[in-house]
Structure formats: C-alpha cells, structure tokens
Amino acid sequence: MRVKIAFFILGLLTGLTLMNVVQGKKFEEVYWKTEELKVQLYETVQQMEKIKEQHESIRPMVVEEIKLEIQMNDHSFVEPALRRTIYDLVKDLLGQEVHALPYPLLFNLLEGRLIEEGNKKYRLEVEAVILGEILAYFLQVKKIDDEAAG
Hints:
This protein has four helices and four strands; from the N terminus they run H-E-H-H-E-E-E-H. By secondary structure, it is an alpha+beta fold. The chain folds into two domains: 1-59; 65-149, no CATH class. A hairpin with a 3-residue loop joins strand 3 (120-130) and strand 4 (134-144). The longest helix is centred in the first third of the chain and has 57 residues, at 2-58. The termini are far apart.
C-alpha cells in the first residue's frame, strides 16, 4: 500500500513538474506582456495629461460664474426677488470670453441703475467689479422713496 501511495505522490510531483515546464514559459510570456501593457498605459496617460494641460492653456478663459455681493444701504436683508432681478441683468455675461469683455461696460452695466421690484425702487451703486472666471460684483443698494425719485 505504501508503494502505491509513494508512486502516486511521485507521479503527482512529476506531472506538476512537467506542467510547470510546459506552461511556465507561457506564464512568463503573459507576465511580461502584462508589464509591457502597464508601461504603455502609463506612457499614454502621461501624454494625455500633457495634451490636456496644453489644451487648457490654449482655451480662452470664459466667465463661468457670476457672484453678487449685495449690501443694502440701511443694512437690511437683501430680498431674493431683488437679487434675482439684478442677476437677470448680468446673466448674459456667462460664457463670454474674459478678455473680450470691456471693463467700463461691466461697471456701467449696473452703476446708477434704477430697479423696480414690486412697489419698491432701488438704485444700484457698483463698489467694485472683479473680472475672471468668476465675475464678482460688489454692490451698494439704496432704497428710494417715491417722493425723492420724482
């Protein structure tokens, strides 16, 4: 019985060794092909990042967001409807090239503008305009009485 078990184990080891010899070369080829593909992937990713950087530098800067910093003259709360009305005046600037927008136009777009919201009237004063991918307006808003406006 021991002899049969010994021959079985010997046959198993011989079979494994032969399989390793036969298939070992194939495993090694697959391993090196995988490593080669990893290197190609790394090189391709590096090239793609470089092209992306070049594309970003070539692409003109455009206005992507408009921020309104509104302060009421009497330090009261800014009504959402007033904010929306002011935003509607400048929303067309979104997507415009930053370098193509004339600064005086941006300033004068809201400077001294009279806004009617409901039965209230407001006068806008532009304190500052910051032009970039984010266009920021810093506004002072004065509530106007009907007698003073007329």
